[in-house]
Amino acid sequence: MEKIIRWINENNLRRNRILLSVIAATCYILMYLMMTNVIGSLDVYYMLDMEFFYTGDEFLIILGSISAEQANLYQVLHYIDYVFIFTFYPVYVLILDKFVNRNKKFILLPLLAMLFDFLENLIIDINIHSGVSGFFASLSGIFTLFKFVFIIAGAVLLILNYVQNKKRKS
Asked: How confident is the model at residue 111 (pLDDT cuts 50, 70, 90)?
């Protein structure tokens, strides 16, 4: 954990935060435009990546029903999402490190979310190209759930820390 923070802090913390934030925001905007069919015609009635949880059956039905063109667009979306994953979560780590400085273990929350987000994407990508078993389809839904749980836990931690700091100042 310390090595990750030190690596990001090495040259210019402010510049690195801004750069990572801009890249993450750009990726998010591109993904949103793809999911709303402004760019391309993905036309999937919902993206597995944006669901809080899904079953293995839902996974297999959704990905089994997309066309080859949609599968290619989904793959492009995931290329952008991989960049998002490796920019958004480090920014989240920096935010937690800056504002929740009581315990450095809290930065594990976004790192675990990043891991589960990456694994979820990997399973979806493998399914798009060669198919996966029901076990991996179900595992992907569990990874998605964990991703959101750790993202929300970090946000709750930030809010609680903010409230505690406000109480101390008054």
From this structure: very high
